[in-house]
Amino acid sequence: MPLGPIVEQVRTLVAAGYNEIVLTGVDITSYGTDLPGKPSLGEMTARLLKAVPELPRLRLTSLDPVEIDDELWRLIADEPRLMPHLHLSLQAGDDLVLKRMKRRHLRADAIAVAERARRVRPGIALGADLIAGFPTESEAMFANTLALVEDCGLAYLHVFPYSARQGTPAAKMPQVPVPVRRERAARLRAAGEAVLARFLASQVGRDVAALVERPGRGRTERYAPIALPAGLAPGSIARVRVARATVNTLIAEAADYEEAA
User: Fold this and answer.
1) Weakly modelled stretches of the chain, pLDDT under 70
2) What does the DSSP 8-state code read for residue 195?
3) Could you tell me if 211 and 20 are in contact, meaning their C-beta atoms sit under 8 angstroms apart?
4) CA dist 142 → 3, 85, 145, 161, 165 (Å)
5) Which of these, 21, 72, 56, 85, lies nearest to 220 by C-alpha position?
6) Against a cut of 0.85, is the pTM above it?
7) Terminal-residue alpha carbon distance, the chain
8) Which of 3, 19, 221, 248 lies most in the core, judged by the most C-beta atoms within 10 Å?
């Protein structure tokens, strides 16, 4: 999709009261390869933010770690309207499994991206898609994926037990038993929950800007779920202080808050 229709749609949404837009897709970092001039995702994002200055918040998700271009890295580092939260399309943390998945990155690439993101944007939150029990995955291979959760500090996981699709190369490979896939998926989720709990605990005492998703609930800039004081309008952005954290959500103070303009 060219930039023009994207800008038009975002302006329409902002005019309707939307304060946050999420750019996502199956292969979002390949944006622009079929367009004149082949603009990168970073170039498109920069132009979008410039064209719609009234947009308060922009979020990116499903990024291929080896295709984050230089302009996007600049925005991650310097653009306050680009939220300090990235969701990466990792799928696995073992090089042989990644090769059999035909992914474009290796385990070291995922770790390097996580380290660079934290270096250029301290405090950034990271999430990822991970598949458990891909065909031929041994326990040692799975252990590499499990360790990646800690190695990259992945607080937000989308975990999927592998599901065979007829006609795909993976469906013809030796299959991991379904109970093993489910058990590995549960272990991945538990690892992610531990990272999330630590991340949420680190937010206590901070002032945050929370997008109110529904009465009493919202998300911070770093995508942390947060319980909010009553009376805040859904769709608004509220500046609040984090009073405490549970293992899976933040809780804001009931007073001394304000709605952002």
Assistant:
1) 254-261
2) H
3) yes
4) 40, 26, 5, 12, 21
5) 85
6) yes
7) 31
8) 221
pLDDT in tens, 135-192: 999 999 999 999 999 999 999 999 999 999 999 999 999 999 999 999 999 999 999 9
234 contacts 213 by C-beta, under 8 angstroms: yes
For the stretch 4-12, contacts whose Cβ atoms lie closer than 8 Å and that sit 24 or more positions apart, written own/partner, are 6/44, 6/48, 7/47, 7/48, 7/51, 7/52, 10/48, 10/52, 10/55, 11/52, 11/54
Q: Can you list the positions of beta strands (E) in the chain?
A: 20-23, 57-63, 82-91, 125-132, 154-161, 207-214, 217-219, 225-227, 237-245, 250-252, 258-259
Cβ neighbours of 158 (radius 10 Å): 15
Average pLDDT score over the chain: 95
What pLDDT does residue 66 have?
94
Pairing of strands 225-227, 217-219: antiparallel
Residue type, 19: N
CA distance 136 to 115: 29
Q: How many residues does the chain have?
A: 261
Neighbours of 102 (CB within 10 A): 8
Assigned token pair, 251: 């809780």
DSSP letter at 172 equals G
Residue 81 to residues 18, 49, 59, Cα–Cα distance (Å): 14, 8, 9
